[in-house]
Amino acid sequence: MRAPSPLAIAGAGGRPPSFVPAPASAKPLSRAESALVLARSAARSVARLCLRRPRTRDLVAQEYDLGNWARLASQRQWVEFDDFAAWVRGRDNRPIIALINGVLCRIPQSDYVQFKRLQTQAILGSYADPTGDLVEIGSGYGNNLFGLRATGAWGHLTGLELSPTGIRAGREIAAHFGCRDLEFGSIDLTDAAHAGFQRLRGRSVFSHYCMEQLNSHTPEVIANLLAARPKRVIHIEPGTELLRWTRPLEAVTRLYVLSRDYQRRLLEVLRRQEAERRLQIVDYRRAYFAPSAQNFPLIVVWQPAHDGGAEARE
Ligand SMILES: C[S@@+](CC[C@H](N)C(=O)[O-])C[C@H]1O[C@@H](n2cnc3c(N)ncnc32)[C@H](O)[C@@H]1O
């Protein structure tokens, strides 16, 4: 397999995540096959763009609370597993086309799950406080948190989520496997007065494909997070701001993000807050992995300014 593209694009003083090598089972697609996969994705995105469906709160609830998380909660597949590690690994060995370190590959689904888990651990292990608690905002049913728990690298893990169905499923899974070091609670990131924000103070916080749902609310969500005084925030989120139309892989993700009305202004909003000295952007970079040909994430890391932006407000 050819060498991956470097992850970092703009060192801003962060500690780059260590590189997780591609699994041996990842078989790169030929150039022609890759081109076809990307062309198909672009065509689907263009069709979706013609429909212009804005990402409203109703749409988010339809896709998650009443959609993915409701299906997961009704299937209760975790009860078929006694072993936590086996549940985390998954048992679906069907091949998928995934982006692995910048290369489109065919790989068994469960091997991709393992690779993604190690990548997430490498990213969070690089930027979060290893001794403290870790909080995920918009955690769904805890897919990332269960994977992180399996690495044994974290103390206490907390998932905060809007969807009651996601929270309920997460709690049931945690209870089934006896995970006392993992808990779930409620938050609405758009509601400044929500009690869930109190659980962020002094903690390392991450989001994974949650800010993607909140493009039109980005300024208020960042302001709410800032007011909660977390230690550091690590976003693993798709976006368009660092993507170039001249690179097919990036152009396809850009089109996809646009067509889904996903996150497109995270860096712009953070840079504005940084200019007002309310926060410091620690690092930002592209991370070329995804369980499909499109929608790979950007990693954006920031922390509240030490003086809380007092000078800027004077
Ligand atoms: C794409 S899912 C990602 C879930 C999880 N982070 C993961 O990677 O498996 C997006 C999640 O964001 C949650 N979400 C959307 N709007 C939210 C809000 N205002 N406050 C908290 N969570 C929200 C959704 O309910 C959903 O569970």
Describe the structure.
It is a single chain. The chain has 314 residues and is an alpha/beta fold. It has one domain (26-313): Rossmann fold. Helix content is 39%, strand content 19%. It contains ten helices and twelve strands. A hairpin with a 2-residue loop joins strand 3 (95-100) and strand 4. Helix 4 packs across helix 5. Mean pLDDT is 91; it is low at 1-15 and 309-314. Residues 60, 64, 138-140, 143-144, 161-163, 166, 187-190, 208-210, 213-214 line the site of S-adenosylmethionine (SAM).
Which properties best describe this structure?
10 helices; Rossmann fold; alpha/beta; four-stranded antiparallel β-sheet; disordered N terminus; binds S-adenosylmethionine; eight-stranded mixed β-sheet; 314 residues
Structural class: alpha/beta
Helical segment tally? 10
Remind me, CATH topology?
Rossmann fold
Give the amount of beta strand, in percent.
15-25%
How many β-strand stretches?
Answer: 12
Unreliable residue runs: 1-15, 309-314
- CATH class category: Alpha Beta
Question: What order do the helices and strands come in, and which of them pair?
Answer:
Layout: E1 8-10, E2 27-28, H1 31-51, H2 57-75, H3 84-89, E3 95-100, E4 103-108, H4 109-127, E5 134-137, H5 143-151, E6 157-161, H6 164-176, E7 182-186, E8 204-208, H7 218-227, E9 232-237, H8 248-260, H9 266-275, E10 279-286, E11 289-290, E12 298-304, H10 310-313
Parallel strand pairs: 5-6, 5-8, 6-7, 8-9
Antiparallel strand pairs: 1-10, 2-4, 3-4, 3-11, 9-12, 10-12
The structure holds S-adenosylmethionine.
Can you describe this structure in just a few lines?
The protein has 314 residues and is of the alpha/beta class. 39% of the residues lie in helices and 19% in strands. It binds S-adenosylmethionine.
